[in-house]
Write a structure and sequence with these properties.
This protein is α/β, with parallel strands linked by helices and 376 residues long. It has 14 helices and 12 strands. The N and C termini lie far apart (47 Å).
Length: 376
């Protein structure tokens, strides 16, 4: 079945007998038992809820996994993932990460005894492997510098050294990128972003193919309690129905904006994996079916960056990404504010860098908005 059809109709599991076209919201915290030692399959919504199960099976089907676990946010999903590890364990992560993930790793997980190394390429990642290394964590394309890492190459390294391999697929979603087909063990999502797609609710997902991993993660999720509410699950189900068309439209518009940005004297550099000049362009072509709707770009000075942020009208100056509304973000002060300044600057995250999440507005309107914000 084509992925766009799966987005609309979801999984085959149905828990409603009325023929409702929309997936019902099962707004129940608890479920009655038919008898002692018997269960309908649902006992308490922190563990399983029918609305959530429909969503989880849909996300798993889209990614090519066997099951998924839904969470109240992407960071709740990452936090649960970190509970797989013990004091003294070591994790290698890609060196350009969402600031919230970096903050969790360095200020919470590290406090709990888990150590981290950061590397930019598969070759450098292999150099970081030690006896205590347990996993490799990738975000590709990366946030906010749009680095692309060869997933298959890292999977080969992880397999060779018997390491768990985790890929954050938030930016491209299973519509454009399938990490499991390239060797990943766990796929992570902030469902708040493209899966939900409407900037109106938070969610997160861990998708797996291994039953043993699933059992461990479900136990942790049930015990720590970062579950997604059935109301929010319904909103994500509704959002996924339009995922295919949103991803295509966002990419189409992004490419037009990229071409316009490249012609602007006030723009020093554009970071977009779909550019042939991008250093990872060939990797992107090989492992994805699209380049997505995320663009980062550097302007000539801090004053220009601030002028754009304070002057846009159609585009909103706000955190987050992947929604129908276009959003522009100042990573230095927002998503990556918790990175030490030296680390930020080493990654290119400075006062001149802006990140644009392209929504579904008309391309000409977005370009006109950027043009007037630049004072052109």
């Amino acid at each position: 079945m084509d992925i766009s059809t799966t987005c609309i109709h979801g999984c085959k599991k149905k828990f409603d007998t009325t023929g409702s076209v929309a997936t019902p919201i099962f707004a129940s915290a608890t479920f009655a038992h038919p008898g002692v030692g018997q269960s309908t399959g649902f006992d308490y919504s922190r563990s399983l809820n029918p609305t959530n199960v429909h969503l989880e099976d849909t996300v798993a089907a889209l990614e090519g996994g066997t099951d998924a676990i839904s969470f109240s946010s992407g960071m709740a999903a990452v936090s649960t993932l970190m509970e797989l590890f013990s004091p003294g364990d070591h994790i290698i992560a890609s060196d350009d990460l969402y600031g919230g993930t970096f903050r969790l790793f360095e200020r919470v997980s590290h406090k709990n005894g888990v150590n981290f190394s950061y590397a930019a390429t598969p070759k450098d990642m292999e150099k970081e492997i030690s006896k205590s290394t347990k996993a490799i964590f990738l975000e590709t394309p990366s946030n906010p510098m749009m680095h692309v890492i060869d997933i298959a190459a890292v999977a080969e390294i992880a397999k060779k050294h018997n390491l768990l391999f985790i890929v954050d697929n938030t930016f491209l979603t299973p519509y454009f990128q399938k990490p499991f087909s390239l060797g990943a063990d766990i796929v992570l999502h902030s469902g708040t972003k493209y899966l939900g797609g409407h900037n109106d609710t938070l969610s997160g997902f861990l998708v797996v193919k291994n039953d043993e991993l699933l059992e461990k993660l479900r136990f942790i999720a049930k015990t720590t309690g970062g579950c997604l509410s059935p109301f929010d699950a319904f909103l994500i189900i509704r959002g996924i129905k339009t995922l295919a068309i949103r991803m295509e439209r966002g990419q189409e518009t992004a490419q037009k904006i990229v071409n316009w940005l490249l012609e602007q004297s006030a723009v020093k550099k554009v970071y977009y994996p779909g550019l042939k000049e991008h250093p990872d362009y060939e990797i992107s072509k090989r492992q994805t079916s699209g380049f997505g709707g995320m663009i980062s770009f550097s302007v000539q000075n801090e004053q220009t960056a601030i002028k754009i942020l304070e002057s846009v009208k159609v585009i909103k100056y706000a955190e987050s990404l992947g929604g129908v509304e276009s959003l522009i973000t100042y990573p230095m002060l927002q998503t990556h504010a918790d990175l030490p300044e030296s680390d930020r600057r080493a990654r290119g995250i400075d006062e001149c860098l802006l990140r644009l999440s392209v929504g579904l507005e008309a391309a000409d309107d977005l370009i006109s908005d950027l043009k007037q914000a630049l004072g052109n």
